[in-house]
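User: Could you walk me through two proteins back to back? I'd like the raw sequence and the structure tokens for each, with a short line separating them so I can tell where one ends and the next begins.

Assistant: Of course. Protein one, sequence then structure:
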Amino acid sequence: TQWTVEADPNSSSRLGGFVPAFSFLIIAGAVIYSLLAPPLSAPSLDAHRGARAVVQGLVVEDPDVRERNIRVVVRADMVNGVIAKDRVGKILVITDRYAPIAYGDRIQVNGVLKEPEAFETDNDRTFDYPNYLRSQGISYQMSFSDVRVVEHGEGNPLVAALLSVKHSLERGFTLALPEPESTLASGILLGEKQSLGAEITDAFRRAGIVHIVVLSGYNVSVVIAAILFVALRLLPRTLALSVAGLGIVLFVTMTGASETGMRAGAMAAIVLLAKGLNRPADALRILLIVAAGMALLNPFLVLYNLSYQLSILATLGLILFSDPIAQRLRFIPETLGLRQIVAATIATQAAVAPLLVVSIGEISIASLIANPVILPLVELAMFFSFAAGALALVSVTLALPFSLVAYLLLHFIIAAGVWFGSLPAASLAIPLAWQWFALGILALLYVAAFRFATGRR
């Protein structure tokens, strides 16, 4: 049921017009602005930098539950009992995992107010954590804090209602499935990967399949394809597209309205608009519009948000290289879409490899095999997991047949992901000293691949 975007070479909206040029200009402007913009200013907080403070504010995002703690984004408006007259901004609060905090709560936080610091990764790269948080409007953090809920229900009622639906589904997954399968169900459907645990998450990363448990264009497209499939059979075409568009907004909001989710949702929304106007969808133009729109709303994403960078490059690789690569892989059967999955994996890995070398220092080798094995099962796992979770809220017995199938699929995905990730050559770690050598090797491989694809010697 999944619908895809393909570049149409005969479309009048091909790359090279005013809109692409203007999009490039916006992205370039965002880069310049990020480099020249002054630090985030919050005088009411700056006065207490490095000291213990009592801060009160509103929880503006769904709390991020990790394996050992919970991370809460708070829009502060009171410091040490004094109402702030200036724009205070956001604070990242890290506290006990079982703290009863929800979106829309007004909380009081007692802790040391610190500026975030950059840190070294396992592969000797420096992660610019301050600017990463800056891309989310966060200027300070308070770790190991004492938190007290002052009031409930001060957030947006619609967002609160959608998050309630999300949490109900998560509760349904817990009723219908054991761990870690229930957590994986939350991951593939709702983008909640943190509670999978470090061991499974690291194995998925080495195997190159961690993208199935983050809210990406893949997850959104599967969900919206299902909505569109049903709507087109019950409603007139225009109304069905409108329902699918509303579904995009509601789904992205329900899953937390992160920049990744909004980017994936925006891609899907533009494609729906193109379908509604009966005009061919130019995938490159769509990608540029989305990239520029996100950069316009938040210029710091372009330079400081790795998720933004990777998703744009991966989509670019998918658009430009997936079909040509698939034409060269005719020896791979098309059963269950295997040929297209392998081509898409090669295309996206080739596009993001240079960025991974520079930013992370690690490239997954096992992904070329792991994705064709696991991805054909993900859509089935999403369907049966959703059915099991939804029915379990009514009756666990009623959900049992769906729970059994969902468990088998999810268990296999976890076992396969961990096995692929544990292979000795699952991923290639590149020390910082070898970074430029690795980039040179990649450049030679790209030139060789281009000459092979074009038939040049």
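----
Protein two, same layout:
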Amino acid sequence: EPFQAEDGPGLRLTYVSPDGEEGYPGRLRTTVEYVLSDDDELRVVTEATASAATPVNIVHHSYWNLAGHDAGTILDHELVLRASHYTPTDATMIPTGEIASVRGTPFDFTNAKTIGRDIGQLPGDGAGDPGGFDMNYVVDGGADEFRLAARVVEPTTGRVMEVWSDQPGIQFYSGNFLDGTPGKRGASYPIHSGLCLETQVFPDAINRQGEPGWPNTVLRPGQIYRHKMVHRFSVE
């Protein structure tokens, strides 16, 4: 459903997941609004209600290459993540339950650095995992506070993208499984040709409820799930 917000055109999408779909309890009604603002923002606001207690963690998973969709890899993009901690994973990519400091690890983006600088420290296993970044970060700041989570700069064009959110975590993914899939106007998307920055509740939080530092991910009847994510674009 198209609509006109005060600051730009928008699109509202609604989906109703019936009780038991994919094994989840309760009827979940979800609405997502996308707005392209007059201030060069892409605003994504998600809300959901449920008829029974159920885990809810709805994530926007777009790929970005600020040099252009057919401009090669994102390894020269400079990234800052406002996150001094992350949630390490085991060999199957499931969080171990630890909330660890990024200091001294290749996951440290508290100061600007290119994505390619330390990616070689995260090699594949030769058995299907190509390596690279695919990690949840704990965004600095208070719970539910709308704040800057990430900033990306493409050095040749000067394009800047900031990601703001009210969520506790952000997943940084460096396009490790892109494999040359054909895209628009005949472009090919090889490994690392796009990046994702997905604001979210921590993965596997449903199995960590009540543990220190782990956020709630259960939506109960009468409550409203809300998730606001804003991409702000500029040039420097």
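The first strand starts at residue 2 and ends at 5.

Let me know if you want the two compared in more detail.
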